[in-house]
Amino acid sequence: MKKKKSTLYNEFHTEVDEALNLVKTFYGLKSKLDKKYAFSIAELALLKIEAAWEQYLEDTFIEMIVSGKKTRSKRSFSYVKPMNRDIVRKIIYQGRDYSKWDYDDVQRKAIIYFKNGEPFMSGLRSVGQELKEITDVRNRIAHRSLHSEKQFKTVIQKRIGYVPKLTPGEFLLTFTGKNNDTYLAFYANILLNAGKRIHS
Questions:
Q1: 148 lies in a domain?
Q2: Which residues of the chain, if any, have pLDDT below 50?
Q3: pTM for the full model?
Q4: Using an 8 Å Cβ cutoff, are 9 and 194 in contact?
Q5: Residues in Cβ contact with 117 at an 8 Å cutoff, skipping those fewer than 6 apart
Q6: Which of 35, 100, 150, 165 is most buried by its number of CB atoms within 10 A?
Q7: What local confidence, expressed as pLDDT, does residue 74 receive?
Q8: How many CA atoms, within 13 angstroms, populate the side-chain half-sphere of residue 106?
Q9: How far is CA 197 from CA 41, 58, 60, in A?
């Protein structure tokens, strides 16, 4: 089914709001529940937010290729001849069952499929480091490897200035010192703003 980019962005925004509201709702109950559950809920919220982000990127790529239209800003032009969504999905998946949508993969795909990689290159360029951080925190939630631990500690060092013993959930619920936001809200806003730049 064909969807406009604005619809795709609104669906993404709704999913991010739902994940953040899950955490806020829990905070309303927190006096009755153990703190460790709050940390687990924050981790689940980040996983939900990143899954929504990846789906938004994939759907937007496919829709832009299939529609064969330029964006409102006329920055993008697809090199791929418009075809149906299933074929485009197979091309983007490159023989796998899914496609990776981390920062480096998005850049590589954007350059392949769109003139100057637009609107993805300019939409993501200024937040590349934050997108990599989100992936590193997500990987620490999903994997307990030494590599994911090292990458996660690097994020904590950069953001907090030292490396206290924190779980990903504890880190996500730590306040950034800006706008009274937690790191979970900070990262969610990074993705929402990046999605808005791609959308416009």
A1: yes
A2: 71-75
A3: 0.86
A4: no
A5: 107, 110, 111
A6: 100
A7: 46
A8: 28
A9: 29, 16, 12
